[in-house]
Amino acid sequence: MVFQAPPTQRHEVQILTSHFQFDGQLETVGSMLNFINDPARDSLSLYDAHTAPLAPGSPLKGFSRPHIVVRRPQIVLLYFTAAETRASIRTHARSELLVAYTPVAICQGHFHMPAEARVRDFLDGIKGDLAIVTEARIFPLVEFPASFPTEAELVMISRSQLLSYHPT
Predict the structure, then answer these.
(1) How far is 122 from 107, CA to CA, in rounded Å?
(2) For 43, phi and psi rounded to 5 degrees?
(3) Where in the chain are the domains?
């Protein structure tokens, strides 16, 4: 019997952490959402990656590397640049229009959650650390070194990086 490994895929992404902005190809194995939100996975690999500090006047300038590992708990926002990738992501049918505050941006959009979830504790019902937000509007709190969408049909936001949130 021959076992085949799940397919490896690469997805163009932009990632914001509280200190850096990354652009590159996120490598996933098997189901993309399961891979990204796997609780046993502490990091994500970016290939053909570029990173730049968010701090203005930083002595560290932007740089490119063939491979950069980003720790998942540090991710604030993750955006898939390809429309077909965003379209392939399944969401919960229920969503609530919320405003969420992170260290680097305010995000307003439809936060997807299980049908039985309440707004006050919906994060407890979401599997994985990265929650899905559709029809998102991003209001930067710092100047990003490269363009990042201020309006996105879909973005992922880290539960662990949410400082607070409320309905609109």
Answers:
(1) 16
(2) -145, 160
(3) 8-82, 84-167
Say what the pTM is. Answer: 0.94
Higher pLDDT, 24 or 116: 24
| Cross-strand partners of 63 | 51
Quick one: fold of 8-82?
SH3 type barrels. (2.30.30)
In CATH terms, the fold of domain 84-167 is: SH3 type barrels. (2.30.30)
Alpha carbon separation from 128 to 42, 55, 122, 141 (Å, rounded) = 11, 29, 12, 25
Which residue type sits at 15?
I
Nearest by Cα to 144 from 18, 40, 37, 25: 18
116 pLDDT exceeds 90?
A: no
The token duo for 61 is 């300038």
pLDDT tens per residue, range 60-114: 999 999 999 999 999 999 999 999 999 999 998 899 999 999 999 999 999 999 8
Helices (H), 10-128: 32-36, 83-87
Q: How big is the chain, counted in residues?
A: 168
